[in-house]
Specification:
By secondary structure, this protein is an alpha/beta fold. An eight-stranded mixed sheet has the order 27-28-29-30-31-32-34-33, with helices on both faces. A seven-stranded parallel sheet has the order 4-3-2-1-5-7-9. The N and C termini lie far apart (63 Å).
């Protein structure tokens, strides 16, 4: 459509267009990389425009003016999210932050709780029917425009045309400014790649093929994306699309084929990145840009089965309270989409949420896992909403667990330097028992090499991994679930009580070298349970004593033999050359496992009904264990 022919009366220069804004107006401005930069600049430099209240989601252009006191005399900025460009201004009190869930911001406009007089938006050129596109900025922009009596549009040929809710006819604009300029870039900030890789490794374990992902605002969630390149048929339902998605699109990791809701389409609300990204989404029917009240509605999110929300945080306390928008009293970012997606993922069939964050800040000087949130810090996500937390030191599963278990899980994934302090602080607050032992201060990343899986004939999968302090409660449940004869065969007595003291000693003696305990875990619904435990401990020089027990319903399926060989593999790495064991003569199943695993073992009957077994390892390479 030729605008000069169709609506010449609406076409104005930027300078004349902004003169239509009356003093005292409440002005909405389009979001993020889609903001109409030239209209903003023209409004700011026109000194006749006074006493303007600005509402915006993510602001960039205003960052060039906020240090000018004359600008602050004329403009009052009210932002729903504090971008990197505006962070220092927020710290200095030069703007006002409005905490709000993204899904609810459009209703603030439509209900007139936040009244608007003018909307400044940027759109693509109209097609032959006069339809423009809000392009990469649909989120709250659509609602802001619909609820402002005066709408001024900057038509920019560089704005991508996107499919979805963002189509607007030129008749809906009061004035139009044709002005071409590059869109705002939002390029990733370099992060510590070692930490990113370690966090991504743990996140990768939690994501199954065919899952639908949401990636929250922030550099860390975005940085994790390239490390998901081994997955298949992922789907996307998220607020913002960034450059981090591009490799997964290009490698066809993201296909959206397995989505239960709107399959085949990436559902999003805005786009922030490079020109390469903007070119990719331009007129691409794979992308379905909808407004924030749709994309961020927890009920809509929950329609996606296996929806996994991945977002970040500034700090988390030992009870699971999460701060995302402030550093103490200083407002830093915003609530954004985190709570909407955490609650939506919780309602999703098979869904859950992940909070991913580095264990430390300020170059390792402070812990992000804290005994209590910093003074002034706001709770964006409550302890009742949090599900899984990941740092470069591991995974903490918090949902459905008490404060005691949360403390132990979070202390385990804190930086080793802060673990003992966190335990001591937790004792002072009576979160845990006064005699609680702290987790190991080792960096236990090497334990990832000891994880393995076994497929049972029933189709169930058993995961084997080293025992951790946070497994205390699950270990207790495992022992109490065993039948009396199974307990007798393992402990040589009719033990009735598995005390905290006993269970603490069990993991406290595990140093993962000279002494090791592996547990076998299966999935029961959304939760996991222990079905087998195997241990070795130093007996004499280069010889370790081994013992294990398997839950009755999983016996005679090869779990015992599997545990034994995996323990041997670890023992070899730690310079052991043989196992010993003491077994009751009537424990035929255990004797069979040892005879099968070590045909050349030496069996010696002692006093009573005990049998001592000496099991030398085969020479290196003689029996290789494969996963």
């Amino acid at each position: 459509m030729n605008l000069k022919e169709y609506c010449p009366e609406k076409l104005l220069t930027p300078e004349l267009a902004v003169k239509k804004i009356k003093n005292g107006s409440r002005v909405f401005i389009g979001t993020g990389c889609g903001e109409p930069q030239q209209l903003i600049r023209s409004m700011v430099v026109d000194l006749s425009i006074q006493d303007i209240v600005v509402y915006q989601m993510l602001s960039s252009t205003f960052s060039h003016y906020v240090d000018d006191p004359h600008f602050l005399d004329r403009f009052s900025l009210k932002l729903f999210f504090i971008s990197l460009h505006m962070r220092q201004a927020a710290f200095e009190g030069k703007l006002d932050y409005i905490p709000a869930y993204l899904s609810q911001i459009p209703e603030l406009f439509s209900s007139k709780q936040i009244g608007l007089d003018v909307a400044l938006v940027q759109v693509s050129p109209p097609d032959r029917f006069g339809i423009c596109s809000l392009g990469i900025s649909v989120d709250i922009t659509l609602s802001g425009m619909e609820n402002a009596p005066l709408v001024i549009a900057q038509v920019n040929p560089r704005m991508p045309r996107t499919w979805g809710d963002g189509f607007v006819h030129v008749d809906d604009f009061d004035y139009i400014v044709e002005y071409e300029e590059p869109l705002v870039d939002a390029l990733p900030v370099a992060k510590n790649q070692e930490i990113v890789e370690r966090i991504a490794k743990y996140v990768n374990q939690l994501i199954d093929d065919g899952s639908t992902l949401q990636i929250g605002f922030g550099h860390l969630p975005d940085s994790i994306l390239p490390y998901l390149n081994g997955k298949k048929d992922l789907g996307i339902h998220t607020q913002v699309i960034t450059d981090g998605f591009l490799p997964l699109f290009e490698q066809k990791v993201i296909t959206n084929k397995k989505k239960s809701y709107l399959p085949g389409r990436v559902v999003a609300s805005l786009c922030m990145g490079s020109q390469r990204l903007y070119d990719f989404v331009h007129n691409n029917p794979m992308f379905y840009f909808r407004s924030a009240e749709f994309v961020n509605d927890p009920n809509v999110i929950a329609k996606n089965d296996n929806l996994i929300s991945i977002s970040s945080a500034l700090e988390i306390d030992l009870t699971g309270q999460i701060c995302t928008d402030s550093k103490g009293y200083l407002f830093y970012s915003g609530i954004g989409d985190q709570v909407d997606f955490i609650r939506g993922s919780k309602m999703s069939k098979g869904g859950f949420s992940i909070i991913a964050l580095p264990s430390t800040a300020q170059n390792g000087k402070v812990s992000r896992i804290v005994s209590n949130l910093s003074e002034g810090a706001g709770v964006a996500t409550t302890r009742g909403d949090v599900d899984i937390v990941v740092t470069e030191y591991g995974i903490a599963e918090l949902h459905g667990k008490g404060i005691y278990q949360r403390v132990m899980e979070l202390a385990e994934i804190a930086h080793p330097r802060f673990r003992e302090h966190l335990i001591e602080e937790a004792k002072k607050r009576h979160y845990i028992f006064a005699d609680q032992l702290p987790p190991s201060t080792q960096d236990l990343l090497f334990l990832e090499n000891y994880k393995s899986f076994m497929e049972l004939e029933s189709g169930k999968t058993v995961e084997f991994r080293p025992l951790l302090p946070s497994d205390e409660f699950a270990t207790r449940n495992f022992y109490y679930s065993l039948q009396e004869n199974t307990v007798f065969y393992r402990f040589f007595n009719q033990r009735k009580v598995f005390s905290r003291e006993m269970l603490q000693k069990q993991w406290a003696t595990v140093d993962y070298h000279q002494n090791m305990t592996l547990i076998g875990i299966t999935q029961r619904g959304k939760h996991k349970e222990i079905v087998g435990i195997g241990s070795y401990g130093k007996s004499e020089d280069r010889v370790a004593e081994v013992a294990f027990v398997v839950k009755e319903e999983y016996q005679n399926q090869g779990l015992g033999s599997n545990l034994l060989k995996r323990l041997e593999k670890i023992a070899r790495e730690n310079k052991y050359t043989a196992f010993t064991a003491t077994v009751l003569s009537e424990n035929k199943a255990m004797l069979h496992v040892f005879k099968k695993g070590y045909p050349h073992a030496e069996f010696k009957r002692t006093y009573g009904s005990d049998i001592e077994i000496y099991m030398p390892f085969d020479p290196p390479g003689a029996t290789e264990l494969t996963d």
